[in-house]
Each structure stands twice: as structure tokens, then as C-alpha cells.
Amino acid sequence: PGSAQIVGVRVKKLKPGFFKCVATPQTAYTSKVSRNPNIAKLQAGYLFPEVARRRAAHLAKYPDAQVISLGIGDTTEPIPDVITSAMAKRAHGLSTLEGYSGYGAEQGEKVV
């Protein structure tokens, strides 16, 4: 077991309604839980670079292929208000005892 340096956040109140987030170093400790051996078999640490690499390899082999990219990309339009309003409402709900639900499912929350 070892330790690693991570960063926490401390909130400092500047004046009414104004806050400043300040990074503070903390120490994280590893657990004695064994690592899943399949994790070591993964070739890419982050999904999107691997998708981009495979897409480029495919296009190099098949230059006339029409590939629909579902990668991260850049947005060209503002996020619709219905989406940002629902996100803001849900985020605010997490600040209340009634609305707090802990971690959501990895698929997201259906109501949002």
C-alpha cells in the first residue's frame, strides 16, 4: 500500500454571495482490495483517443468510407434551455435533504 497526492477544494467566503474555491493538497491511501486483472489488459486509458485512433486507421485503410463520428467533437449550437433548466433544477435539488440521492446510475437519471 502507498499513498498519492490528490487535491481537495476549500471554499472561502469573500463577501455575501461571493465565494472562492481554493485547491488544498490531501493524501489518499490505497486499499487492500485486489485489482481486477482485466484492467491491466486495457490498451487505452481513455476511451476517446482510442476511438479516434481506430477511426483514423479505418479511414487510412478505406479512404472513401463515410464514417459517422459519435466522438466528443465540438458543439456548434447553445445547449437548449430545457436541458440546462432541468440540470440546474436537479443540481439545486442535490443541496437539500429531500432531493439528495447520492450517486446516480451510470446511465444517468431518467428525469433529467
UniProtKB/TrEMBL annotation:
User: Required cofactors, per record?
Assistant: pyridoxal 5'-phosphate
GO molecular-function annotation terms? Answer: transaminase activity
Asked if the record carries the keyword Chaperone, the reply is no
Q: Which UniProt keywords apply?
A: Aminotransferase, Pyridoxal phosphate, Transferase
Could you confirm whether the keyword Membrane appears in this record?
no
- Name the chain's protein: LL-diaminopimelate aminotransferase
Which organism is this protein's natural source?
A: Chenopodium quinoa (Quinoa)
